[in-house]
């Protein structure tokens, strides 16, 4: 058996596939964005075709070598970096050279897994259509990784997660075989749905190499507004009013807490704040309307209809103002990163229980010590990014002994309310223990049986989702 950390492995792999790009992984392939998890890698490969991916997987299977698929490296749960505790140094298989558009028209498109999400959106726009998956990291996140993690983003309320935007996938399985399911069919009841199994599996069952994606009509009119609300309860009531007045037209409904706005001020980030006094709670609402309706009028009507729920509001009067509103929301993760969180949480609870979660979690954390909470996210689909930070003037290192207690405190409240400890970021390696602690035992057992059946050697992203 060959070891990817040895030159003999690269030599043998190159001999088996002379056209394959092979090299040593640079540090950027071995660290996740939050800097809490560092990986190892024996060799980096960059295939250009599905056939090359299959050959690499077959070679690794023959030698019992683990494979870590790598997209844009933007994942936040360490699914893209493997530490030595999960086994010997793996092959890192980057999909960055697989960027071709295989087919595209106004109804859908087939693209390779290495295309960035921004490029996928641009291809859709070229067809006069919309691919609605939207993330802050879309300039570097790749569509294969978005599908492998079943990414969510800001438009889930209207269009659904990545799984709901995908009609089929092509993937290389652990034995090197290629499962090609790229038919662009909305209905296909021919047995088990391998697509839905692979989407969200984080590369632990197979490597997605291409996908057939759904496209949607571009809204004829688009409108964006920021509303100040007195509480999360009022935000939920405002969402109900908006959906009643504009059924099927609310694309995004984002809750923003004062703390995130104060972080932006503290860091001196050059962003336009819509309100001179930073409100305790604010909602960013975006609508997309059919022809014949005016977005600004619709948002003004919403403001008037919800006057008991809204303290103040600003409606974007231009594309520039819309971009400024979204820039404020999209820079919250960057502000969090620069401040330095004690513990970050991507959670979901049933929509009616969001206000209860916010109140209970804050009270529970207050018993642990003096900390700041930045709570924001996709309130329209029950997903919050609930992040806990040091008190003003203190570093996160001073809270190292509390980090696990903070996480457990938040997750216990989530679990008590019937929520999920991972709403859209996945499990990766960071949350394997949390999955075991909070998941149904029957579900976990089924997942392990599936993993064993499809990857009996355990070479596909070892240690991600399930323990190696």
Short account of what is shown:
This protein has 468 residues and is an alpha+beta fold. The protein is built from 15 helices and 18 strands.
Tell me about this structure.
The structure is a single chain. Among the domains are: about 100-215, Uridine Diphospho-n-acetylenolpyruvylglucosamine Reductase, domain 3; about 220-335, Alpha-Beta Plaits (2-Layer Sandwich); about 340-425, 2-Layer Sandwich (Alpha-Beta Plaits). The radius of gyration is 23 Å and the shape is globular. The strands form 4 sheets. Strands 15-12-14-13-17-18-16 form a 7-stranded antiparallel sheet, sandwiched between helices. A 5-stranded antiparallel sheet has the order 5-6-10-8-9, sandwiched between helices. It has about 475 residues and is of the alpha+beta class. The protein has helices at about 5-15, 50-65, 115-125, 145-150, 155-160, 195-200, 230-245, 260-265, 295-305, 320-330, 330-340, 355-365, 405-415, 430-440, 440-455; strands spanning about 20-25, 45, 65-70, 90-95, 100-105, 110, 130, 165-175, 180, 205-215, 215, 220-230, 250-255, 280-290, 310-315, 345-350, 370-380, 385-390. Helix 8 (about 260-265) crosses helix 11 and helix 12 (about 355-365) packs antiparallel against helix 13.
